[in-house]
Amino acid sequence: MDRTSETRGGTVLLTSAIAAALGSFLFGFDTAVISGTESMLKQLYSLSDFWLGFTVSIALFGTLFGAFLVGRPSDRWGRRPVLTALSVVFLVSAFGCAMAWNWYALLFFRFIGGLAIGGTSVASPVYITEIAPARRRGLLVAVSQLNIVVGILMAYLSNYVVASVLGAEHPAVWRWMFGVAAAPSVAFFLASLAIPESPRWLMKKGNRAQAESVLARFGHENPLREAKEIEQSLAAERSEGHQRLFQPRYVKVLLLAAMVGAFNQLDGINAVIYYTNKIFREAGASESDAFMLSVIVGLTNLVMTIVAMGLIDRVGRKSLLLVGSVTFVMSHLMAAWVISPNAQRWMVLAAVMGIVGSHAYSQGAVVWVIINELLPNAIRAAGSAVICALIWLLDIAVSWSFPPLVAHSGSAVFVFFAVMMVLQFFLVLKYLPETKGVSLEELQTQLAGG
What we know:
- 80% of the residues lie in helices and 0% in strands.
- The chain is built from 22 helices and no strands.
- It has helices at 3-33, 38-44, 49-69, 71-77, 79-98, 103-131, 137-166, 173-179, 182-192, 199-204, 208-217, 223-239, 251-266, 269-274, 276-282, 287-311, 317-338, 345-361, 363-374, 380-409, 413-431, 440-449.
């Protein structure tokens, strides 16, 4: 392949990855926007800590179903049409939450948004994994995580801007905070219509010529050879009949993927993301200061994600998880020590930045990459859906329980997250293989023989 074609292919590849990752942007935005509204919703609907936790976590019940439901349509109709459909669901949710006429309507449209988040958490990384050459796979799938982080930052920033313009006490401020998501939803819809279909999905449907063409458009070095490798891998799977997800040959990869996915929530990140404003208010910050400090946390998340994108294909996935475990433990223990009504604000900010930064350069950057690397072609969509459903189930547990746990035990809940990160360190060190720079087909062979 000449340099001009390679450059053009790289541009198409990056553009398609970014377009697919707009779903991840909305994933991040919708996840974090609730942090700016929770105090207003608690007051408006007279919610206890228990029901506040339920209101925040209702979207996560949607994600649980969305992650399960997206696998089969993605395999049947293709990755691209599913991404388009999810963009429409995001748009419906944004308008519905902004116009919610009572608490039940808000819960319904947040649940609808959760369906889109869950579906996107599967569909976007699967699509990017399947279009990327092995040498760029970690970087490109990390684009998905980068967009999640940018979405979180933009949610914090838009909350801050809306509160500044309308006033934090304006009765409709929370409606505008939710409604802002309509703009990126439209952008996601238009972008999803312009990207090519996944070459691996095309091969699975017998469209080899089209798959080779797409591989060439994406700048793969040898489209013919790669198409042949994919074809051989799929042929071997078909020769063994229907591929059930839960069977002995897939136990190892499913357990490894589930381990990484579980710790993605047990590191405590979403307790911080969903309740950033609440944590700062508990430490004595005013409502307006809490919005501003949340933006600083979002910037930290973005910077450390960019750092991770430069490291993931150099130092590897396993190393980032191991180092991240260590900084997580230190940050959570610091949070347990300093977060109180009489705490110094800079110390609370440092602890929260440490937790968010640790997640950004380790678990956050690695999880969506390695799950789809570990799972073989035959079960990638279905297996990713199951692992993502596990992630969202744990997310529900963390987000729903956090307010009553903090009310009962204060900042001691962060000690639990620190213990989980100690456990992650030793399990990753012993069991997780390094996947950087290995083609999906080669990795599948290695894990099957391991």
